[in-house]
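Q: What would this chain look like folded?
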Amino acid sequence: MTPAEASAARAVDPQGFDIDRVRADFPILQQEVHGRQLVYLDNAATTQKPASVIEALERYYYLDNANVHRGAHELSERATRAFEAAREKVRGFLHAHDATEIVFVRGATEAINLVAQSYGRANIKQGDEVLLTEMEHHSNIVPWQLLCEQTGAVLKVVPINEHGELILDEFDRLLTKRTKLVGIVHVSNALGTINPIKTLIHKAHDVGAVVLVDGAQAVAHIQVDVRDLDCDFYAFSGHKLYGPTGIGVLYAKQSILEAMPPYQGGGEMIEHVTFEKTTYNKLPYKFEAGTPNIAGAIGLGASIDYLRTMGLGAVSAHERSVLRYATQRAQEIKGLRIIGTAGLKCSILSFVVAGTHPADFGTILDQLGVAIRTGHHCAMPVMQHFDIPGTARASIGMYNTRQEVDVFIDGVARAKRMLS
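A: My prediction, written as structure tokens:
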């Protein structure tokens, strides 16, 4: 690409998306790292937070700090209103039918463990099958391995092809009447692949299986409508949605939640307790034992407000444009191999360079002010599939620009020269 072509490419952006305004909303992006302007390309690990989210957290702790639901005083009432308003924002964001289908958890990992140990222990028996995919995050593998060890169920895995796409014929072959649950990632954190989950959910329901979707990498990039998808469970983490850490969501159909036993016992999840018998609280509180992450939920609500203001459609179009540009620039580097070349993908550019180790790129790029992630990305089976120790991964968020891509690619080229 010539300098003139690069300049022309940088000038193209989806109409109506004000990237300068967006970047101004994120205070952390204004700093320098090692004397260089920060280029943050580690959004798949965690996103940065806009000022409005930080201010929502501050406002709660400055003015409204109190426990929710049980207090008779004004602070508790204000905290409760803000906490439940956040639940309603999540409901609207996912297009769920009712707020009782929204359970606050610590993150997608806890949400999946909740389903495995509550729904799974109650419904999956010896000889039943759990069907996963080869591209799952460890958080959507290990809980099901534990369940299978506990119950005698069998774990089956749908393989991927050389592009990092599911082999759909294998999905059809492995999906049988013995399949009781399908766990599938919406967007791969290691590859960027967007899975055809609506089609897969329909097929799973045809054999009587329920479906859990790991949406941790999807919700910041794709419009999610759980009713349209008809998924039984959907899990995501707030910190990948420009919200705080330590807060996440499990969506589940109301009828399923009502039939599930509690996951944890303690305060809030009870209705009445005696030493002889305990009765449980109504939904969703039956699954929210103990004092919740009140500030985290309020911050998550603020992040959803912010995304609505920006417009997720405009955000997605901008990110696709930046990813296309990054992919084009990366292909200019001799010896660089992109891992994950699905026809439908978002946000992720994972790569290896012949004769080098991915970790070395992370170290050198950090000295240039560029933050990326290196390693197996909690997706070791993906790395085993491609016979590599790991990848260097740049992951794009709403505030990333083509100019930052140029800095990143120049850094990769420089690192390659140094490592050669």
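The domain at 3-30+311-419 is CATH 3.90.1150.10 (Aspartate Aminotransferase, domain 1).
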